[in-house]
Every structure is written in C-alpha cells, then in structure tokens.
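ok trying again, last paste got cut off:
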Amino acid sequence: MDGDKENVVQAVVIMDTFNSNLNPICADKPTGLLALAGVPLIDYVLESLVAGGVGEVILFSCQEPSKVREYVKKRKGEKVPWTFTLDVQILSSETCQTMGDVMREIDAAGLIRGYFILLNVNTITNVNFAQLLEQHKQTCKKDKGAAMTLVYKEVAWDHPLISNNNPIFVAADGNTNKILLYQKYKIKCRDNTLSLPLESVLHHSEVKLHHNLLDANIALCSPSVPPLFSDNFDFQNRNDFIHGILINEDILASSLYYTLLKGNQYAAAVTNWKTYHIICLDVLHRWVHPLSIETGSFYQNSYIFMGKHNYIKTNSVLSRSCSLIEDVIIGSESHISDMSSLRKSIIGDKSLIGKNVTLQGSHIMNNVVVKDNCKIINSFIDDGCIIEDNCILEGVIIACGAKVNTDSKLKGNIIEKSLNDKNEKTLSKSTSESGTEWENESSGDGDEEFVGFEKQWSDSESCYSSDSSAESSLRNSPVPDDINIFLQEVIDSLARGYEEKLKCDYLILEINSSRYAYNIQLNEVNFFVVRALLSLPILVDSKNVLVTVKDILKFFHPVLSNYIKTKSSTMDCLRAVEDSCIKNEWLNDKAGQVIHLLYNADVIDEDSLLEWYEDLKEEESEIVNQTSLVKFFEWLNQASEESDESE
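nice, full thing came through this time. structure:
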C-alpha cells in the first residue's frame, strides 16, 4: 500500500491570492468559491487535477477555511465526479499572510512525499499534470539541483490575457530550457529596454528569449522546494522564489527550468476582472475542454444550447420578445422579461431581469433583481443585489446584498453596500489607445494588478482562437521603472515600521522581498535603503530635522547593520547621503551633521570617509564645499591627529 501511495501524483493548491484584485466580491468569501461561467473556481481546479492524472491534493486555505471545508464536504455528499478518484486534504492557517508562509507551513506539516504540482485556485487549465511532472523528473535526472519547472503558454504578444497583466520576459538556455533571466515588464513603458547579462550569452551556445508567455501559476516542483522556502524567510511569493534562486543559484545549489504547452492545451489564471471575463468566454467557447459550464456537476446536459454560444438551464424562463445575441449563460430558475437584450453576459440562478433591459459584457450572480429599463455594461453584480428601474451602470462592481436606487447613473464605481450607506468607492478615470480604462483609486502606485473594467474588454478574443483579430488593449501611460518603484516601496515599508514601531527583522524581510521582485542588485539595495531613511515623510515637516534623523538612525540601526557591513557597502551608504543631501530640501547644508550622526552610530568608518571625501573633491560634488561638511572633516582630521599623538 505504501508503494502504491508513493506513485500517486500529489498537488498543492493555494486557495488564496493574497491581493485585493477581486475585492470587494472576494473580501468576505474564499476566492475558490467565486463562480466563473456558473461554476466555482475550486470545481474547475479539482476537475482539472483529476483529468490530469493527480490522485491526491492538498488545499491550503487562509481566508474563511471553514467555508472551503463545508463546500468540499457538500460536494462529496453530492458525489460529483472528482470525489471518486481524488483524495482531498484541507489545511488551514489564518496567520499566513503570503504564499511563502503557506509553503513553510506545508513543509512543517511534512505531507509532501516527493515531486509535486503547485498551482493556485484561480488557475483554469486542461493540461496533463502527470505527464508534465514526469517531464520535470527527467530534467532532475540531468540536473540534480533542478528545483522547479515553470509552465507557460506561448501566445500573441498583444493578447488581452497578457496586456491585462504584468507580462514577463524570460531568457533561457536554448538546449536545456534552464532559465537565465526572469523579469516582469510594463507594456508601452517609456523604458522599453531589458538588460541581459553578458555572461548569460557567453556561457551558453544558444539563448532563447520570450516576451509573450502566459503565466497560469503552474509549477512542477522537486521535494527541495518547501525546504527552500523554510530556509529563506524573504521568499514571500513565487516571484521572490524565482528571483532568489536566479540570484543565489550557486549558494542555494538550485536552478529553474520552464516548459511550453503545446497545441490545444489551455492554461490561464484569473488575476483581475478583465482576465475573469476573458477566461469565462474561453470556457463558454469550449477552449478548456473537457472543462465546461457543467464542470463539477454529476448530471450533464442540464443546459439547452440556443446557438451562437448561448446556453440556458432547462428550468429558466425566457420571454418570447427577449434577445440572446451571443455568448450568454442563463442559470436555473432565472427569468428574462420582454424586450430585454443580452450579449456576452452570464446570469446566475434565480435572478430576475426586468423589461427592456440591456446587458452587455456583464456578470449577474444569484438571486439578483434588475428592474425595468436598465442598461448594464461591463459590470459585476454579486448575489442578492437589487437594481431599481431606469439605472445605467458601466464598469461597476457591486458587492453582495447591495441596492442601487432608481435613475442611478454609475460609471466606474465599486459599491459594497447600498448607496444610502455611503459605502462606495469610485474608480478613477484614465485614457489609453483602446478607450477608457477604470482603475481603483486605492490601488496605489500603478504597479498593482488591474482592478476595474474597460469599454472594450467584452470584445476580447481567445488566444486559442484561429480568427483572433481583436485590437490590443495596451496602456500608453508612463510607468516608473523598477528602481523607482523599489525605492518607493522601501520608503513606504520603513515609514510604516517607524510609525508602528515594527521589528526591524520584519522590515528587512519586506525589503528583500521587494529586491527580488524587481531584480535589484545588492549595491543598489544598500544605496536605496539609506536613501529611503533620509527621505521618510516625517522629515518633511519636522521642526528639528537633525534630531529626527538621529532618532531614525537609532531606530533603524539593525537595518543599517544588515546592509552596511563591508567597505563597498559603506561607500554605497556615503553616496546615498550625498544624493539625499542634494535632492532633499530638508537636508540642505546638513551633509556634515548627517555624516557625523552616521559616524557616531558606527555605521561608517574613518578610512571610508576620507576616501569618499577625496572622491567628492575630484568629482566637484555640489556638497563638497558645504560649511558643515568642511567643518566635519576638519574635526575628523584633528581628532585623528590627537589620537596618533596620544599613542
């Protein structure tokens, strides 16, 4: 029996995305219970695992794990297809905040017996997992350090599933598919260049470059992967893991590979509302066969096919004068009234659509009432909502149980309760080549995943379609380069740490995580950590800047000690001080005092200071003649002479 169990293919499904891209819909319920084309994501994942040769799966849930357990128990009672051959274990921890925390918990539990498949609950695929895992095992026979094989689908570079995500650039050995460089990039960014290290080219006879890979969050893993997460606490997500392995390949004795799916194999991930809609249409168009709108159902053929990819449940009610134009699903016991028109839209169970209603590119969940003369475009309306008469909604996300009042006109709104409760967020407007985009005001600096809708999103074709001719939805807005984003993230982390008096160990983990995410070199990390400390918002309005700087250096001394500990890192620190004193108004004419504070804190040494001062003179730096700096070095030389005399 033990031998048979060893041959069973294992998979780990992470049930949380650890972001707010699908909020507020997934704020109070697990992502796995979000329905796509009428089927919860968890059913797609479990069904695809069974079809792909997996015999045992570990579901790890952090958000509302009790709801996941209840749902799995319910499905087992209903004897849906996957329950007959798949052994499902559910682990949970409400303390895990990242994917890295989950992997460390899994390692501690000791449930992984060997090679395994790692994916997210938002992955929609029809691949043969067992075959892919066997391919990874063959790679490991040739390279004992092969830790992970990443699975990608090659598509047109301007396809919406790529342009509505952060696309990736991969450089790999052309003979072995070993990954040499992995980097996310911004479409239509001002800086349209990517740097490939010279040694990557010189040490390999052939190098493949990919910029059109669709990442479905599928990884084929060796037994070493969970321990690698446990040994490296700065691995907080998959990107951290990838960058950490690539940067420290020799130290960690590990390497990464990739494989491309072929033919009609489908793989994509629901990462935001745009990709949600695109993948929904792919399921409807049967590109994910054998997964379909009846996935997870014991009873098949419960839908009636109406032509043009329109499907209605046998017990739904349609008025004779309503129109289903194309790509429509209507759930059980739902009612469509006179003169209503539906296109590229999904209606859940027991919902009522009133008279003369227009629905386009929208998702209406269960028990929703849309009253007469409404127009709803590119919107998501969750369970139990009521849309009163004569409403016009475009690009709107409405959470469970909300109510929209009569004659409301909403464009780009997130509504968490009824409008009378004033619990509403507005999506800010920006323009692009493809029309109007809507982005959540609270999404930060623009590097977050997309949250919102676009006018053209409902017209996107599948990357698997033979007649794909949809115009690309590329952004044309400038985005800060990775260095600036990294600096801002470090400033934000340190500012929050200083305000909330967090442990410096946690802040170091955050900084390292950002470092791996943006592929920042160590000397740059040293520079920008010091730069960030001298750019904290509290300094801007400080009445006594030097007292505040002294307190900051005292509080963050463990952070400085972690990064500034060699001669080269000390020079990085001093260059950061120079840069800060030039660019930050609050440090005008204070270079000498800042240097003195760092010297007294034993962050920098005398030899490095003297060398740096000579560099300032040679380069004719803007701060070299500052009175405070000149006086500091006069004091330093005098103190050094007195020390020599005393000896």
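cool. Confidence is low (pLDDT under 50) at residues 418-480. Residues 254 and 403 are 54 Å apart (CA to CA).
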